[in-house]
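Q: I have 214 residues here and want to know how they pack in 3D. Can you give me a structure?
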Amino acid sequence: MSDVVDLTAMYAVHDALRRELAYLDRITISTDRDPRHLPTTAGWALFKRALHAHHTAEDDALWPALRRRLADNPKDLALLEALEAEHAAIDPLIEALDTALADPEVDQLRLGVLTDALATGLAGHLAHEEDAALPLVQRALTAEQWGHFVEVHAQLIGPDAPLLLPWLLDGADEPTVAKLLAPLPASIRAVYTADWAPAYTTLDRWSPGTAPTP
């Protein structure tokens, strides 16, 4: 079914998350940056919003669809259970990092350990998903089932689209940008070009005091 399931959006999300993990790592180890400012940055807020939407869409719409299609294959079901367990392990790392960042006495070493654990866990999960799960998606899901996942993902982004769409496409190549914008209504493409993308380019998202309103 690889001819009906287009994984461009999935890889774009993964690339964007990896891009932000690199920023987090640089901020944490930098000698001239105080990582305790992370909660006031747009970068940290957008990273968490995008990751939450992505993982929730997978948990609610992707893994259940795959589980139904692969019900007779214990090996594939075990893979899905492993991926869900990886999701469950990432949220506590973000919560621990948020807790540490809220502590005025926390030292940079502690923050570095937590950031490294988050980066290692999430990067490993993304690679596992690409290597093992996405081939299952292409083999097992119908275009309708994949489309439902994409729709759920879009709904979860919802009101955050003016920031998260340009965030997603930041650094993407032209074919990827064109492919992901093409299905959108003409009115949304127009406002993206005229307003959302220009506003995003002025956002120094990892500077203190740039966090968007919740």
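Q: Anything worth noting?
A: Helices lie at 8-29, 42-69, 74-101, 108-140, 143-157, 161-169, 174-181, 186-201. Residues 181 and 188 are 9 Å apart (CA to CA).
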